[in-house]
Design a protein that fits this description.
- It is a single chain.
- With about 160 residues, the protein is of the alpha+beta class.
- It has four helices and eight strands.
- The strands form two sheets. The chain has a five-stranded antiparallel β-sheet with strand order 4-3-5-2-6, with helices on both faces.
- β7 and β8 form a beta hairpin.
- The radius of gyration is 17 Å and the shape is globular.
- The model has no long low-confidence stretch (mean pLDDT about 95).
């Protein structure tokens, strides 16, 4: 078995959600979830089949974001993985609905941080072992850091 780290592309001002799903219907269900939950969102979705024609299926309302999803999945090469790139929306806006989608097996991450996916290869194919999301901790939150966090959450409208 070979293990590799795959660097994932996230366009400026966007977030990514990576997960695992198991059925061709997933691509349409994920589209409907995002389009009906955050109508102003721009997004791309791609999903890798792991049987039959083994195609990368795509949907979205932003061609460039769809292409980034496809590129990321091509680099990973793992089956039954989906990639969503969001613009004008945050993962928190859609994550619970995505987790409740009957075909979704798991979420690997939801982030805007630099991202690497750890992929294992065997004679059968490739699979995602996990992700490296952002950087290692540099310290413990101090009072001024706590104040900054609270101010930021209010600035973006997530707290009163």
């Amino acid at each position: 078995m070979d293990i590799e780290s795959v660097t994932i592309e996230i366009p400026e001002g966007c977030n990514i959600i990576l997960g695992q799903t198991h059925f061709i219907k997933s691509i349409e269900d994920l589209y409907e979830i995002i389009a009906t939950t955050v109508p102003q969102a721009k997004f791309g979705i791609a999903f890798t089949e792991a049987s039959g024609p083994c195609l990368i299926r795509t949907e979205g309302n932003d061609h460039e974001l769809v292409n980034v999803c496809v590129l990321n999945l091509q680099k990973m090469g793992a089956g039954h993985v989906f990639c969503i790139i969001l613009k004008n929306a945050f993962p928190i806006n859609v994550l619970n609905q995505i987790k409740n989608c009957p075909e979704v097996c798991r979420i690997f991450c939801a982030t805007a941080n630099p991202l690497e996916v750890i992929v294992a290869s065997s004679p059968l194919g490739k699979g995602v072992l996990g992700v490296i999301d952002g950087f290692s901790p540099k310290g413990i939150e101090a009072a001024e850091d706590k104040a900054h966090r609270k101010e930021f959450l209010r600035k973006i409208g997530y707290k009163l």
